[in-house]
Design brief:
By secondary structure, this protein is an alpha+beta fold. The chain has 4 domains: 52 residues; 36 residues; 157 residues, Jelly Rolls (Sandwich); 167 residues, Jelly Rolls, CATH 2.60.120. Helices cover 17% and strands 33% of the residues. The longest helix is centred in the first third of the chain and has 21 residues.
């Protein structure tokens, strides 16, 4: 067991997260390795001391500064024979030590306009950090908006809310929720981020992490390399290089996913649009048009994408009839060579989010008919004219009766009445079919200009 693995196991042990298999490995290492035993003692002493210090008992023997001053002043009087000049020099050194030696914060941050957040600290009283700073044990919750993080190590990050994070130490961040991008200089190699599903160790790179409730956590590597380990099941590890992205799949395995730079911000926005009142846009079934629909008595027309058929509590059924749209196919009306779906919202809205439930027919499992590569276009008129940058793929549905779908909320909000999905491919399904189960858009109505 190398030093890095030892420290990770010790940290999980004292945080109460070490699983039985790793506990046996750690016990074996502690029995055979004197250095591991010393590291265990150091961790135990530090954790116990910090806990007792919170209760008013200081085992770290931290001497208050006023006591240092008092001791030095008494020593100066004892050596009065050295002369008044020497006493003044000593006093000057003491004062300089008091006022100059101020530790640099472990992490500082700034926020974009309109950001709503809260901070809590492990340290209390005079020891509590001041301002927009975090020290080990500090927790930051971003309810809305964006924060730019600056570590003393040189690591820089952009975190989009909603997000919850805890700083464990200068090189270790716990991200319980949020979308975060990090740029790590070579001198800070080894920087680590933990999420509920995974552990990531940086090897000098630029990467992004997404951790969202009810979704498996994702890693996207833009430059350099990272090491990742699934925290559950088989706890599979992997080394990812630039251009690769993975989802921490069930059972401890890793699942490939398209690289999505559009999910992440690399600089702090100068403004935040006021979309606090964004709501679901109800689209009449007749306002949805598809380039084709499968022929026959299959009941898979385009209106099923907006009529909430098969949708219960935000989850979509896998029962296909009357609940999903399917294009024509090779033996069912002929291949649709330019498949697309267009939504008329009925008025101009500022769109800040949309949700897609892909084609979810099962059994038999035909979810590979669902849309894969896609271009999302929009405009205030039927001519469209603009494209949502970065959104290039829809994830394949799970085939379960409670499919959660996929949410898209990382793009810059745009104004549109018409939104079109230009479909490029499916997930390898038969007969050149293309299908979707449900689509929902969220936004704020743009007021019409007053008539003169």
């Amino acid at each position: 067991m190398n030093r890095r693995e030892l420290e990770m196991h010790l940290q999980d042990l004292f945080d109460g997260r070490l699983e039985s298999g790793d506990l046996e490995s750690l016990q074996q290492e502690l029995r055979n390795n004197p250095e591991a035993q010393d590291a265990y003692c150091d961790y135990a002493h530090l954790k116990n001391s910090l806990q007792l210090r919170d209760e008013g008992v200081d085992l770290l023997n931290v001497v208050p500064m006023d006591r240092v001053v008092e001791r030095r002043q008494r020593r100066a009087l004892e050596y009065a024979g050295l002369g008044a000049v020497a006493a003044l020099v000593i006093l000057g050194v003491v004062l300089a030590f008091i006022f100059i030696r101020k530790p640099q914060p472990t992490l500082t941050f700034v926020t974009s306009p309109g950001t709503e957040l809260s901070i809590s600290h492990k340290l209390a009283g005079e020891d509590a950090p001041e301002g927009l700073t975090l020290e080990p044990g500090s927790r930051l919750e971003i309810r809305h908006g964006t924060a730019e993080l600056e570590f003393t190590s040189g690591v820089r990050g952009i975190v989009r809310g909603p997000a919850n994070l805890t700083l464990l130490n200068e090189g270790l961040l716990e991200l319980d929720r949020g979308t975060a991008w990090f740029e790590v200089p070579s001198k800070a190699t080894g920087f680590q981020v933990n999420t509920p599903d995974l552990t990531l160790i940086d090897l000098g790179t630029e990467f992004g992490i997404r951790s969202r409730p009810d979704f498996l956590d994702e890693v996207h590597v833009f430059t350099g390399k990272v090491e990742v380990r699934n925290r559950y099941g088989l706890k599979k590890g992997a080394q990812l290089e630039a251009g690769e992205a993975r989802v921490a799949g069930p059972g401890g395995r890793w699942k490939e996913t398209p690289l999505r730079r559009d999910h992440f911000l690399t600089k702090l926005p100068s403004t935040e649009p006021d979309l606090s009142n964004a709501a679901l846009i109800r689209i009449p079934p007749e306002n949805v048009t598809a380039s084709s629909t499968v022929v026959g008595l299959f009941s898979r027309s385009a209106d099923h994408m907006v009529d909430s058929s098969g949708l219960i509590g935000g989850q979509h059924t896998n029962a296909v009839k009357g609940n999903m749209w399917l294009s024509s196919g090779d033996d069912y009306g002929g291949e649709d060579y330019n498949p697309s779906v267009t939504f008329d919202l009925g008025a101009i809205y500022t769109i800040n989010r949309f949700h897609v439930w892909n084609y979810n027919e099962n059994p038999p499992n035909l979810t590979d008919r669902g849309v894969n590569r896609v271009s999302v276009k929009y405009g205030t008129t039927p001519d469209l004219g603009s494209t949502v940058t970065g959104i290039t793929n829809f994830a394949q549905a799970d085939g379960i009766a409670t499919d959660p779908g996929e949410s898209f909320d990382e793009f810059r909000p745009f104004k549109a009445r018409y939104i079109k999905f230009d479909i490029i491919s499916n997930h390898g399904g038969d007969n050149n079919f293309y299908g979707l189960s449900e689509v929902q858009f969220h936004g704020v109505l743009v007021p019409e200009p007053e008539k003169r």
